[in-house]
Amino acid sequence: MPPTKITVRSDGPLRVEGEVELVDMEGRPYGLGGRPAIALCRCGHSGNKPFCDGSHKTHGFQDKQQARDLPPPQQKVATTDEHR
Ligand code: FES
C-alpha cells in the first residue's frame, strides 16, 4: 500500500490521498464516506471545516508553496514536572 500523500496546494487546501483517519479533539472519527481523497482547509474560510468547500477562491486566499526542509527538531529539556 502506498503511503498517504498530502499535497499542499498553492492558494488552496491540503489534499490528502490514501488511507487516513481524521479525528476530532476527543478522538472521534469523521466519516469520510469512502472518499479516496479529501481536501482540508488551510485558509480558514471554509463553512465546512476542517474540509475545504472552495471558499479559498472567493476570499482570495494566496499562499504559494514549494517543498522545503525543516531544521532538525530541537531537543526538549525535561523538567521535573514531566517526571511526575
Ligand atoms: S482552503 Fe479551501 S476553503 Fe479553505
Give keywords.
1 helix, mainly beta, Ribosomal Protein L9, domain 1, 84 residues, single chain
CATH structural fold name: Ribosomal Protein L9, domain 1
Shape: extended
Mean pLDDT: 93
Instruction: Decide which structural class fits the backbone.
Output: mainly beta
> What is the CATH class designation?
Alpha Beta
Percent range for β-strand residues? 5-15%
Instruction: Give me the Rg, rounded.
Output: 17 Å
The unreliable regions are none
- Count every beta strand, where a strand is a DSSP E run of 2 or more residues: 3
Overall CATH architecture:
3-Layer(aba) Sandwich
Q: How many discrete domains?
A: 1
- Please give the share of residues in helix: under 10%
Tell me which ligands are bound: FE2/S2 (inorganic) cluster
Number of helices: 1
Element-by-element helix/strand order:
EEEH
Could you give the order of strands across the largest sheet?
Answer: 1-2-3
* Amino- and carboxy-terminal Cα gap: 41 Å
Largest sheet: 3 strands, antiparallel
Describe the SSE topology.
Layout: E1 5-8, E2 14-17, E3 37-40, H1 55-58
Antiparallel strand pairs: 1-2, 2-3
Bound molecules: FE2/S2 (inorganic) cluster (FES).
The site of FE2/S2 (inorganic) cluster has 12 residues, from helix 1.
